[in-house]
């Protein structure tokens, strides 16, 4: 992983147009793991090194959080490793699913978003754990790839999830309410004040702009998908009516003209707070209605954006505050894990809401003409906010790109900083680059709309290419002077056989674009080796050394990443090897890792991931081979083996003649004086 230093990306000139050198770029950012990204991600570069570095780092986060569940396919996780409140044994959480799907819609391998959506709408997922915008995100995926069957097949499940929220709907107010903790935002004004300022982790139920915006967006998505499927006029009418009713109630009841902001009203009624009263301050959550295009385009509502820019209100030196300094309990720390501060939303910067605000701002700048004409906020502000968000990804103490849970708004330093916090996938970024800064605005119609949102005095050039859209491959380029790419202005390329569209200004352009069929997902083998958690009896791992379930589980849990920090360690670790020949002690010249499937299975190939880090003392083995347990109970090398050379911090491929066995073993020779970390031994 090569993400600690800004890199000068290389371009070549081809027929007058700049083409990014994918091999060089991916090698620089991902090292030996570059093949995973090669045919999957759009390429991007810009004159701002932080934006470029963060873009590729965010794809490494995406890659790290694709957990293989075996027959269930892939899901996106929120934390790198297991946490107690995840849905077991899968390790799923639904609060950030919307972000995960929006990032995944730009991945050329559609399997990740499709497997994930299938799982999240299944009965094995905890679909009600947190408030969510899953249906809306699935629809937004359709706007990119145009695959009708991918969205219509989930229509029934979407309605089941939507209707389940009736228990949180107040018919007298026409609004949904939620406990802030279930809104994934503990310690808000409503929960702290409901406790009398004593706590705020639980309680504080409120009618919030967040959940009502999510339900508005989900209702619109269900109506759109039903219309797409056809023959469901009643469903279309029902959900459009629900969306419209929510829209009006949010605007009528949650807009506070004094604060010029959408804010909570209390659902809870106790000695500290009163039912239906407004909370006593602005929160960043009040900008979420624009994330989902809920507000009407009125000058009155547009004034809310002024508070996002005000340094004494929601704009902190290092990022957007979740609450304002004027609040009595702003940044008061209530909750700890030992001596470490825990998660709170009473002022800290959260990438979660940063993403929502920037998504909403892109919507506002793109199609709210009355609001934008006020000049209350501009593309220059979008650029500044996006750049500040990008900088948040790099820890100022270590200089390493490592996104964590929340940050101090004055310093940009992580607040929580627990082991679970590193490389946290609880937000989006690359969707903001592609649909915001670069400006590809996905549509259900057969058009390509490009409306870049950036400050030309700050961003002098950028290029994004290999972007999937409606079955086409799109490239979008800006060069203020023409000195970087050899072509001045905005350039749009569609596939390889279409003329280039160009214009001198970075302004909105709409191009008719008949859609092609969406590409099929990559054909992916089903892994048979995945142990979903340590309590699942089979498959299970054993090893010649460090042989405990807690150790071996990490090498067969379906997770692959190569972050070079000890806090992000992943896999089974063997101690330092010496030159003796014993195979059952710490001094093994040859070591092994075994998988017991619990029954006879057919195995014929493997993907093997070894970690290497000079600073941590890990090296990939010098050689390896695969063995299976024969019917007589003895181990033997597989027949017809084709072993690729060992790849450190990447995937080593192995194939052999398919064979039935209950157990398979990876035997390897470590480097003398070095430790070995087996990140994953995935068997097919």
TrEMBL record:
Gene3D superfamilies for the chain: 1.50.10.10, Galactose-binding domain-like
Coiled-coil annotated residue ranges, if any: none
GO biological process, alphabetically ordered: carbohydrate metabolic process
A single GO molecular function term of this UniProt record: catalytic activity
F5/8 type C domain: residues covered: 527-684
Origin superkingdom: Eukaryota
Annotated PROSITE patterns: FA58C_3 (PS50022)
Protein name: F5/8 type C domain-containing protein
């Amino acid at each position: 992983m090569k993400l600690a230093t800004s890199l000068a990306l290389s371009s070549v000139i081809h027929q007058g147009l700049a083409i990014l050198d994918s091999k060089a770029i991916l090698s620089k950012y991902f090292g030996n793991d570059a093949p995973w990204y090669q045919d999957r991600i759009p390429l991007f570069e810009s004159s701002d090194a932080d934006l470029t570095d963060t873009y590729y780092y965010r794809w490494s986060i995406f890659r790290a959080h694709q957990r293989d569940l075996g027959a269930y396919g892939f899901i996106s996780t929120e934390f790198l490793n297991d946490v107690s409140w995840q849905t077991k044994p899968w390790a799923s959480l639904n609060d950030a699913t919307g972000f995960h799907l929006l990032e995944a819609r730009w991945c050329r391998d559609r399997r990740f978003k499709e497997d994930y959506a299938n799982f999240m709408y299944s009965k094995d997922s905890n679909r009600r754990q947190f408030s969510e915008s899953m249906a809306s995100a699935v629809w937004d995926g359709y706007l990119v790839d145009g695959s009708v069957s991918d969205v219509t097949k989930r229509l029934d499940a979407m309605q089941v999830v939507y209707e389940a929220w009736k228990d949180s709907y107040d018919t007298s107010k026409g609004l949904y309410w939620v406990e802030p903790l279930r809104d994934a935002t503990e310690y808000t004004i409503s929960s702290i004040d409901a406790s009398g300022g004593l706590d705020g982790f639980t309680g504080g139920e409120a009618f919030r702009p967040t959940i009502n915006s999510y339900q508005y967006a989900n209702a619109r998505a269900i109506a759109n998908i039903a219309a797409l499927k056809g023959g469901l006029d009643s469903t279309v009418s029902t959900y459009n009516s629900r969306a419209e009713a929510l829209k009006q109630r949010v605007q009528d009841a949650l807009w506070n003209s004094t604060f010029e902001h959408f804010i909570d009203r209390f659902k809870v009624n106790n000695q500290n707070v009163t039912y239906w009263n407004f909370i006593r301050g602005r929160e960043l959550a009040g900008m979420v209605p624009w994330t989902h295009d809920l507000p009407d385009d009125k000058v009155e509502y547009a004034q809310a954006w002024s508070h996002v820019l005000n340094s004494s209100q929601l704009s902190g030196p290092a990022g957007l505050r979740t609450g304002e300094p004027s609040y009595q309990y702003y940044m008061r720390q209530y909750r700890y894990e030992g001596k470490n501060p825990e998660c709170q939303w009473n002022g800290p910067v959260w990438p979660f809401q940063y993403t929502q605000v920037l998504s909403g701002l892109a919507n506002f700048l793109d199609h709210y003409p009355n609001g934008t004409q006020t000049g209350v906020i501009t593309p220059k502000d979008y650029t500044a906010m996006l750049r500040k968000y990008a900088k948040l990804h790099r820890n100022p103490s270590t200089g390493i790109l490592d996104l964590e849970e929340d940050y101090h708004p004055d310093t940009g330093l992580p607040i929580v900083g627990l082991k679970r916090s590193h490389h946290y996938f609880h937000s989006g970024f690359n969707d903001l680059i592609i649909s915001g800064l670069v400006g590809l605005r996905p549509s259900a119609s057969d058009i390509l709309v490009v409306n870049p949102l950036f400050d030309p005095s700050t961003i002098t050039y950028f290029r994004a290419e290999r972007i999937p859209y409606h079955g086409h491959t799109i490239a979008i380029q800006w060069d203020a002077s023409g000195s970087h790419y050899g072509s001045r202005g905005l350039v749009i390329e569609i596939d390889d056989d279409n003329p280039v569209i160009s214009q001198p200004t970075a302004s909105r352009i709409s191009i008719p674009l008949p859609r092609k069929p969406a590409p099929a997902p990559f054909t992916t083998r089903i892994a048979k080796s995945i142990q979903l958690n340590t309590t699942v009896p089979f498959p299970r791992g054993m090893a010649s050394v460090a042989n405990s379930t807690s150790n071996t589980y990490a090498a067969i849990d379906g997770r692959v990443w190569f972050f070079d920090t000890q806090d992000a360690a992943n896999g089974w670790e063997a101690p330092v090897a010496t030159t003796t020949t014993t195979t059952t002690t710490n001094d093994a010249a040859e070591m092994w890792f075994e998988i017991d499937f619990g029954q006879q299975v057919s195995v014929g190939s493997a993907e093997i991931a070894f970690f290497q880090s000079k600073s941590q003392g890990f090296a990939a083995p010098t050689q390896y081979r695969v063995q299976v347990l024969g019917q007589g109970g003895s181990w033997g090398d597989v027949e017809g083996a084709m072993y690729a050379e060992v790849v450190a911090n990447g995937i080593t491929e192995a194939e052999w003649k398919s064979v039935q066995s209950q157990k398979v073993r990876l035997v390897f020779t470590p480097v003398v004086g070095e430790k070995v970390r087996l990140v994953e031994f995935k068997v097919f």
